[in-house]
């Protein structure tokens, strides 16, 4: 009997969500375009519907489950909430999204624009998750977790399948918040011989800490990317997948993330949010140093940036 692999599962998920998502482009750059002698490419997932990769996991979760009359609920720093709100609106489902006070006004506005109810409260993501859990217990709504759920991880893994068809890859750099994205991609690409490197802000390193400790641990969160890469604990599912399939984690500081945002706008006219630019920050800052000729995919995973902040950071 054929073993049902993670790649098989992600292929089934890809077929499921493909009518509802955008196949995002890859921008192939010349050797040395980012310094050094490696060959980079950008996967432009910041052009995805609702502005981030989260739309993949949201659609996979909705399409894989029976949704009752109470609809769906999610806690989010912003991008997951926008994705769930968008997917729910497209599929005719009700959605209620819980966001912390640190969420950017532009992300909250996007959630509302897609027709979801928004509940703002608590200082950090974990506070919003607690409020969401209480609502789910009371209402019977279906909870879509942003990272610690198989359907979410499976949906994010479709990005790896798509990317591998678009470009030759030796290594990919992936921004990490709760770890659902890097886990899903790594589970698909690492068995193909692609090295998957996670990138976390120095002030928000939940997966780095979990891999060092041998299991999930709580971390403090303080970074300009906290509204998208701000999980306090990755949980056991993400840790178990990452421990098997993610090559390693590198850390970048907020200054490097700001520089990556500015570089993307100055040189490519791409506007990325901080979490979306973290992977590029690793390549530009030397946190990850590719070998000559190495084909390095850099994921630009989110574009939901507050325009006032963008003007400040890009100069």
Could you explain the architecture of this structure?
- The chain is of the alpha/beta class and 315 residues long.
- It has two domains: 6-53 and 149-314, Rossmann fold; 54-143, Rossmann fold.
- Helix content is 44%, strand content 15%.
- It has twelve helices and ten strands.
- It has helices spanning 6-17, 54-63, 79-90, 105-113, 125-139, 150-166, 180-189, 206-213, 235-245, 254-268, 274-285, 307-314, and strands at residues 26-28, 39-44, 72-75, 95-99, 117-120, 142-143, 171-175, 195-201, 248-252, 295-300.
- α4 (105-113) links the parallel β4 (95-99) and β5.
- The model has no long low-confidence stretch (mean pLDDT 92).
Short summary:
By secondary structure, the chain is of the alpha/beta class.
């Amino acid at each position: 009997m054929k073993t049902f692999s993670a790649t098989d599962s992600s292929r089934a998920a890809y077929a499921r969500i493909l009518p509802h998502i955008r196949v995002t482009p890859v921008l192939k750059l010349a050797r040395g375009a980012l310094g050094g002698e490696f060959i980079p490419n950008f996967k432009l997932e910041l052009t995805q519907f609702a502005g981030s990769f989260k739309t993949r996991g949201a659609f996979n979760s909705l399409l894989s489950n029976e949704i009752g009359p109470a609809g769906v609920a999610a806690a989010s720093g912003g991008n997951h909430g926008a994705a769930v709100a968008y997917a729910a609106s497209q599929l005719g489902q009700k959605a209620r999204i819980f966001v912390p006070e640190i969420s950017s006004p532009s992300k909250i506005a996007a959630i509302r624009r897609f027709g979801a109810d928004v509940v703002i409260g608590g200082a950090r993501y974990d506070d919003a998750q607690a409020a969401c859990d209480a609502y789910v217990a009371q209402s019977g709504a279906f909870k879509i977790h942003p990272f610690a759920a198989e359907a979410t991880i499976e949906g994010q893994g479709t990005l790896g399948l798509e990317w591998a068809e678009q470009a030759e890859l030796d290594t990919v750099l992936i921004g990490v918040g709760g770890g659902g994205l890097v886990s899903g991609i790594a589970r698909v690409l690492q068995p193909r011989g692609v090295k998957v490197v996670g990138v976390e802000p120095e002030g928000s390193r939940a997966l780095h800490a979990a891999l060092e400790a041998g299991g999930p641990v709580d971390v403090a969160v303080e970074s300009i990317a906290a509204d998208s890469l701000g999980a306090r604990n990755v949980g056991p599912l993400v840790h178990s997948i990452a421990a098997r399939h993610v090559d390693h984690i590198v850390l970048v500081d907020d200054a490097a993330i700001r520089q990556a945002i500015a570089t993307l706008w100055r040189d490519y006219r791409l506007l990325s949010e901080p979490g979306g630019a973290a992977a590029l920050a690793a390549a530009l800052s030397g946190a990850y140093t590719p070998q000559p000729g190495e084909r390095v995919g850099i994921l630009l995973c989110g574009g939901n940036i507050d325009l006032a902040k963008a003007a400040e950071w890009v100069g």
